[in-house]
Amino acid sequence: MKAKKAEKRLNKAKLLLSSVIDQYATEKSVAGTRDLLRAAVSSIDQAQASMKGTPTLPAAQTPKAGEVGEATPKQESKLSKEGRRRLSLSAKKRWAAAKRKGARTLSAT
Could you give the number of structural domains in the chain? Predict the structure, then answer.
């Protein structure tokens, strides 16, 4: 989730919790519930503070792969040349058989 969207959702949740807390009466019977709601609001405040404390770059400023950092090692092929050739030939055979039957696409059946 993007930072702006998360911040908006946190603000919305905080506003909703605050309105629920305000609606509760000051009776002692709901004091525990009010305390839980206040704890939830403080957790939202902590989450917002941690989001603001960590610098994030907008999508336009994020470095592209290969611009920064070490180059990732190229993954070795797991198929040999002979294996790739065999796969290619078998695929060509399947397409030829399907074409003879008049199929436009290969189905999983």
Answer: 1
